[in-house]
TrEMBL record:
<protein>
    <recommendedName>
        <fullName>Phosphoribosylformylglycinamidine synthase subunit PurQ</fullName>
        <ecNumber>6.3.5.3</ecNumber>
        <ecNumber>3.5.1.2</ecNumber>
    </recommendedName>
</protein>
<feature type="active site">
    <location>
        <position position="241"/>
    </location>
</feature>
<dbReference type="GO" id="GO:0006189">
    <property type="term" value="P:'de novo' IMP biosynthetic process"/>
</dbReference>
<keyword id="KW-0963">Cytoplasm</keyword>
<dbReference type="InterPro" id="IPR010075">
    <property type="entry name" value="PRibForGlyAmidine_synth_PurQ"/>
</dbReference>
<feature type="active site" description="Nucleophile">
    <location>
        <position position="104"/>
    </location>
</feature>
<keyword id="KW-0315">Glutamine amidotransferase</keyword>
<dbReference type="GO" id="GO:0005524">
    <property type="term" value="F:ATP binding"/>
</dbReference>
<keyword id="KW-0547">Nucleotide-binding</keyword>
<keyword id="KW-0658">Purine biosynthesis</keyword>
<comment type="pathway">
    <text>Purine metabolism; IMP biosynthesis via de novo pathway; 5-amino-1-(5-phospho-D-ribosyl)imidazole from N(2)-formyl-N(1)-(5-phospho-D-ribosyl)glycinamide: step 1/2.</text>
</comment>
<keyword id="KW-0378">Hydrolase</keyword>
<dbReference type="GO" id="GO:0005737">
    <property type="term" value="C:cytoplasm"/>
</dbReference>
<dbReference type="Pfam" id="PF13507">
    <property type="entry name" value="GATase_5"/>
</dbReference>
<dbReference type="GO" id="GO:0004642">
    <property type="term" value="F:phosphoribosylformylglycinamidine synthase activity"/>
</dbReference>
<feature type="active site">
    <location>
        <position position="239"/>
    </location>
</feature>
<dbReference type="InterPro" id="IPR029062">
    <property type="entry name" value="Class_I_gatase-like"/>
</dbReference>
Length: 265
């Protein structure tokens, strides 16, 4: 696929607020990217020229923000609306190995959808969530630079061009604590490690796994980002789109990696 043929949709609803930065990051690399409201995929009240389908795109991004005001749980309403009318379309999109990324609130949406941890290759969206992103241990909104160790060995299509072992992406969230079913935490972590699904873990300035404030939310195993078992669905709490431009360009590799992946499809 030629770069100018690549098309990316950044999905938004009321409350998302990072779509512009995400769109700009993709456009900076010479691909077509637009922010698209979820209703454009299913509402019969949308004008024909504004209607969209997943088949119009080669990559889907769920941006950060506070979709639907984070009522019920962060990402829950966004995911419920999407799952009720577009589950099959998104599942087919993922099965075709097209990439999907969820950043911060977008990660929360993917978790609520059941698209992450994504252990089942044949069923890319589980019937119910298999993990959760809970309130930070500090019980407060955490907004700061975070240091992340790149753990992935090549499965995740969003980090294959990342050469640095430790990167800096900002975090800005109140519900980012990775939690697995009670009593099954070790099983989940072991499975993620064996499948090469752990992408980023929080570290301190010496590159060591550490607690608060370096782990801003208390996530188990210091997990900051994971991918599904096939590596084309990626969710992370820190914001690579906010570390795209000079002087902090660590996030640029995330977008470069997926664009290069699409060029090879």
């Amino acid at each position: 696929m030629e770069r100018e043929e690549i098309k990316v949709a950044v999905l938004r609803i009321e409350g998302t607020n990072c779509e512009d930065e995400t769109v700009k990051a993709f456009r900076e690399l010479g691909v077509f990217c637009e922010a698209v409201h979820l209703k454009q995929f299913y509402s019969d009240m949308i004008r024909d020229e504004e209607q969209r389908t997943f088949s119009d795109y080669n990559c889907i991004a769920f941006p950060g923000g506070f979709s639907a005001g984070d009522y019920v749980r962060a990402g829950a309403i966004f995911s419920a609306r999407l799952k009720s009318v577009l589950r099959r379309d998104l599942e087919e999109f993922i099965k075709q190995e097209y990439p999907v990324i969820g950043i911060c609130n977008g990660f929360q949406v993917l978790v609520e959808l059941g698209a992450l941890p994504g252990f089942d290759e044949d069923r890319p969206i589980a019937d119910k969530p298999e993990m959760a992103l809970c309130i930070n241990d500090s019980s407060r909104f955490e907004c700061r630079a975070a240091l992340l160790k790149h753990e992935n060995r090549g499965k995740c299509v969003f980090t294959r061009k990342l050469e640095k072992e430790v990167v800096m992406f900002p975090v800005a969230h109140a519900e980012g604590k990775v939690v697995f079913p009670k009593g099954m935490e070790d099983e989940y972590v072991d499975r993620l490690v064996q499948n090469d699904q752990i992408v980023f873990r929080y570290v301190d300035p010496d590159g060591n796994y550490a607690g608060y404030p370096w782990n801003p939310n208390g996530s188990i195993y210091n997990i900051a980002g994971i991918c599904n078992v096939t590596g084309n669905v990626f969710g992370l709490m820190p914001h690579p789109e906010r570390a795209f431009w000079y002087p902090h360009e660590d996030g640029k590799a995330v977008f470069e990696s997926v664009v290069e992946y699409l060029e090879k499809l």
